[in-house]
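Weekly sync notes, structure subgroup
Attendees: PM, AL, DS (notes)

Item 1: joint prediction request from the bench team. They want all three components modeled as one assembly rather than separately. Inputs as received:
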Amino acid sequence: MSAVDPTEIFRQEAEELLEQLEQALLDLEHAEDGRELVDGAFRALHTIKGSGAMFGFEQVAAFTHEFETAFDRVRKEHLAPSRELVAVALAAKDHIRALIEQAETADAAAGDAIIQELRRVTDDGGAEIDEAPAVEPVADQTGTTTWRIRFHLAQDALVTGTKPLLLLDELRSLGTCTVTGLADAVPPLEELEPEALYLGWEAILATSHPREAIDEVFMFVLDDMKLEVERLDAPPAAGPSADPAPAPSPVGEAEAAEPDLSTVPVVVPLAAPEKTRREADAGKTTNSIRVPAERLDQLMDRVGELVIVQARLSQLAASGADTALKSIAEEIERLANELRDTTMNVRMVPIGSLFGRFRRLVHDLSRDLGKQIDLVTSGEETELDKTVVERLADPLVHLIRNSIDHGIEPPSTRLAAGKPMRGQVRLEARHAGTEVLIAITDDGKGLDRDRIRAKAEEQGLLAPGLKLSDNELYQYLFHPGFSTAREVTAVSGRGVGMDVVKRLIEALRGTIDMATTPGRGTTITLRLPLTLAIIDGLLVRIGQDRYIIPLTAVEECVELSAAEDGRSAGRSFLSIRGDLVPFLRLREVLGSNSPPDPHQKVIVVSTGELRVGLVVDQVIGNHQTVIKSLSRLHADVDTFSGATILGDGSVALILDIAQAVELGHAQADRQRAS
Amino acid sequence: MSKVILTVDDSASIRMMLKMTLTGAGYQVSEAANGVEGLAKAQEKPAHLVFTDLNMPVMDGLTFIRELRKLPAYRGVPILFLTTESDGEMKRQAKEAGATGWLVKPFQQDQLLSVVKKVLGA
Amino acid sequence: MSELQSTGKPIIDGPIEALTFALQGEVFAIEAGLVREILDLVPVTQVPGARPFVGGIINVRGSIVPLADLRLRFGMEPTRPTIDTRIIVIDVPLDGEACTVGLLADKVFEVTEIAASSIEETPRVGMRWQPEFIRCIGKRRDDFVIIPDIEQLFS
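Output from the run, pasted for the record:
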């Protein structure tokens, strides 16, 4: 078992808290009643300060303390948080992060400047709030004093966990001590409440410790008790002092002094926080543990291998005659499937974790560009595989930057066009079957078809006059180096183009589509599989070879009669229940030489905009399995998105439908040209 | 049989610090991240001492202390709350809710052990 | 173990420990350090659209490994496998990272030391195999042994 580093736990915790703090601050700008948000921000700071000090991050604790103090003023006086305040607070939050991550390079002067600014914005008189120095009890070296200590605790002292005998033990540890019980307050039996404390005690203590030491013993109960401490000039006669009734608890003789109050919990007066309840964040579960991402990957690999071997077992059992083996294989198949589902679930995280990041991005970007933009999100709870979410961050950032930079117009232009001054970027995520759809919509000026067309023709990508659907036209935006932006702004630049975004999305086995209304806005839709690791596939045979077609794409399966086959030779459409569906003979696309089966099958698939029929020899069946990536030596083969190992140990390639169709079209074009 | 200490705090780093120090000193430690979990844990594994933060989501410390005191098994069990200041108001409220004492954050390991000894004995 | 040279064709200094095998009637040798294992012929799945000399893939204990036929790299015809055909699984450095590949061999001989003294530069003429894919020639008993330039072959 690997050792856990407490500092690392603090860092991760601080990371989350800083994130919460940022969200609260961003919300604060628009909130009508920010009190709960301010309290929330305060609590986050509070925890960071406390934990920071505990784990040796003194600078963090000190800075956060100042931050907290300034914010406390906002809280106490219910100051309306201004944009200025939020901006400074955000800067302060960034500084805290810098202090945590790279304490050596963090600029202390910048930190001080931020604090000054914070104070100014929260209208502080300028008084420094110093922490009172820690109060340490001073050991008295001057000799022994004898005290008479009489005390009665609150009646509910026992119920609230106070243990009088321990208090007496502590007194004894200060010096030589004689203790007597005082029963004067004990009521008659009928009135006696079993849990209440009626006893008192008197202790004669000879000690060299100072008076404060005695108070320390009663530290926790001082406010609720009767305590009389009297200095005696001379130790009284041995024996109990005046006591009418027989002492029900004759406490023993003094023991040798064992001074152990060398360190005492330190008293540090600071501003007290108000006690407020805070709503739990969306997606934050109460019972969870942290797991290093690596371990999840390892788990997934093992489960994947298990699934493969289990498939082989099932095949072996099915081909044999051993019924006991068959039933065991079935049981194992059930368990393996459940394990696989559970493991896949473990790796799912809500996409909301990404959305949070973007709020800051939108805030800063719109401020930099002088535009006013709101980010609206929905579907934060939509879950995706962890690795997919991580790899989505970059493409999404770029798409959002694009929308803000090139899509949404400056306020004056918007007003002139009759639009609301504030622009909106909407991020929506939802499940659709076994895919996740993420849409980025802006209400900006939309895509300019003519400009795109002109640029495409100018770059020689498009023959002038060739008719194209809108969608086909927009696909040109994804060509490397294609950018219709008139100005290259510092923000979105030219470097990371839409072609890179497309590649990143396709690397996730996803697709990207655009739709736009000129003057009204643009929507970009990403479709992604739920998980990268396992695929639900349809196993098919073409000639002697077997391939997998992703089941998510499959709509239906029909027979291709020999007559139809003959009829459609030379044409590229099939009639399926009256609809004309373009089709591809996969054997031609994949270069299979063997003669086709008499009764072929057509698998109608759709992905994104595309709907096509794929002709195969035989549909073998469903096959769920782990996807293995192809070797780098096959990186140039994009017709296949990976491979998988079948039950009999052989390999089946997984078809990338979009690519296969493209290849088919390219081949057909070449044929027609020749 | 070593004594059981229940720690209730939404900060994983504080819980870890408490656990490391207390198990090092021979105590068994049971943990929870908020008041609701704390109540569940308290009943699942009876503790001899309870540490709780006051600032927690889902169920705050004061409510937790109050609820814990309602359980017969926990009448008389010392409950210490963690606080970063020694403001009388907070202490008063916590004591009123039924807390036994407190520990001021940030605290060192020996301070923690010393207060445990104070309310639990040697 | 001598290191692979990445550019140029410096002569290897010192004897090399190599696995020798037969391909199309010639004897080849691969540095023993690159060899992971030797397999019998297993079912090969064709990869339509791949470069011909890495036209197939095989399953090696759960991993997908490309199968390379060096004959095709040298522009020659492939031949049918026989009972002696083996697959030599090696690690090839590709862009700085190791890449696992299987090599078809008509017959595998043994791991042997190829004496330094026997190593000569590749003659430019009279060679059936393209010189740019060959590092140098050595000798094993009476036969010439061709030491291919693995990195060049797979780049």
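Discussion: The two ends of chain B are 14 Å apart (CA to CA).
Action: AL to compare against the crosslinking data before next sync.
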